[in-house]
Amino acid sequence: MGLSLFAAGSLRATLPAFIEQYHQKTGEEWTLTFGPAGLLRQRIEQGEICHLFLSADENNTQQLIQKGIALQYAPFIGNQLCITAHRDCVSEHDTWLSLLANPALKLGTSTPKSDPSGDYCWQLFEKIEQTNPSLGKQLKQRAIPLVGGKHSLTIPVGKMAAHYLITTQQADLFIGYQHYQHILSQFPELMVFTIPNPFNVMAHYCAALIDAQAYGLYQEILSPYAKHYFVDVGFLPLTEPISSMNSGKKENIVINNQCV
């Protein structure tokens, strides 16, 4: 039956090829389950079998550590946000901020607390609120969580959320992950805007080791090879050193009767 990997939905397009390469090298069989990281964490807490968990944020992996479910975790790659807009909504003078400030445009996001992408959007709004209090508050009120929740609509297989939601007129703008930018930019009906620093939010994707059987893949995901692999497909290198973290207890992880 193999081992079970739960992974953030934003890894769906890139992770399978990485896992297939790992399978060819080691012979290990893995079953992949993708979805909003917050909802996946809840499934793990409810007892679903999962040996390794890849979250788009640190909070969900920390919660598994605190509850004694995960053995350790570490960040492995980064990401940021971008804004996708329907080209018909954009004037030649528009910027990322003027689009967000336009109350006539429907603004779609993912769902906070269920999906880290939604949490990052609210962090973005809070940063905007520090320099423009009224706009930050308006964005929190206007934003429509369209995906990533328990009862959200399902994006058709093979479709990208930003493209699908905008072309089906459910949103005029969508805030999502930057690693999709190179693909979204190829659609003539869309325009993608980079959110500059210091407003943008850095996402730290983390791997949580839940069962010692998954230690090999856990180490592979933290390797320099994995870093280059994910950066090549649009993710960002971490801005701080990768360091393994655990619950604070000194634990030995046993693999094949040997401590590691």
From TrEMBL:
Entry's Gene Ontology molecular function annotations: molybdate ion binding
Pfam family, one: SBP_bac_11
Residues passing through the membrane, by range: none
GO terms for biological process, alphabetical: molybdate ion transport
InterPro entries tied to this protein: ModA/WtpA (IPR050682)
Protein name stated in the entry: Molybdenum-binding periplasmic protein
Species this protein is from: Proteus hauseri ATCC 700826
Lineage: Bacteria, Pseudomonadati, Pseudomonadota, Gammaproteobacteria, Enterobacterales
